[in-house]
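Before relying on records like the one below, remember that each one covers exactly one chain. Contacts with other chains, cofactors or solvent are not represented anywhere in the record.
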Amino acid sequence: MKKLLFILALISFSTQAQTAKGVKIGYIDMEYILEKVPDYADAINQLEQKAQKWKQEIEVKKAEITKLKENLKTERVLLTKELIEEREEEIAYLEKELLEYQEKRFGPKGDLIIQKSVLIKPIQDQIFTIVQDVAEQRKYDFIFDKSSDLTMLFAAQKYDISDYVVKKLTASQKREEMSKKQLKALEAKEALDEAVEENPAFTERQRILDEKKAAREKLLEERRIANEQKKADAAEKRKKLLEERDAKKNGTVIENKTSEGDKDEKTEDKKEEGSKQDKEIVKEETKKLSPEEARQKLIEERNKKLEERKKALEEKKKKIAEEREAAKKAKEQKTETENKN
């Protein structure tokens, strides 16, 4: 009842205040935000592992007590009154111990609650800090937690800032691992996002700018591809010219296997190039030898070169032999002169 009265009082206050100025109200869903935080998921996973271990220990203790009870039931007729009482006291003590252990682990002030608070409180504190920053930046008058004990009878989706808080929280965690340059870029992006959310007209302008930028980049890319294609064509032509020169120099012939259409295209390209070198090649191509004559000429030139090399090698050998003979005679004369002296 108190909660309902508080909400009604708040609505009444907001309505009255709105006549004087615009009251800005927002809300978050803490459970939703925590589920989106990786650190929270890790903390819950660690806590769940501990809880499972404690539950296993409790089950073991329960099994021991159950076994003792079954043994007492079976052996009761064989035991004395004193032994029966002793067994019952032992069972009662173990049951009391089990309850105390359950309270210690899973009670209102147990280890599960304490450790959950230790693991999750730093994350919650970080979220509260971000919520306060958001409230100051966006000029909120009130921000509520939908998942808290405060009952919200109705909440419009447009006032939910949970996703925005998650984004700010993620960015805050990333900042710790970023360089100054990366931080500056991130801050610029956040400022842009803030402007977009606050000003719909800015969003439309930004969309137009992005479209123009994309069109410009596409045009530049098309020009780059066209330039690369031109360079590739020019390189191919140069390569062809060099091959034809080498063929004529060596007395060989490159057979023309291109179709008439290819010849026309080649001639048209040469006209566009306006290269004197291309015209000379076209002119000389009409004077080429036949394949048989070209091969015969090549063989003759090779034989001539081999004869010249052979002759040069023989002359070199002869010269070396003469130099050795002269050196030998000079050495003998020197030896004779030394013997005479």
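Residues 325 and 331 are 10 Å apart (CA to CA).
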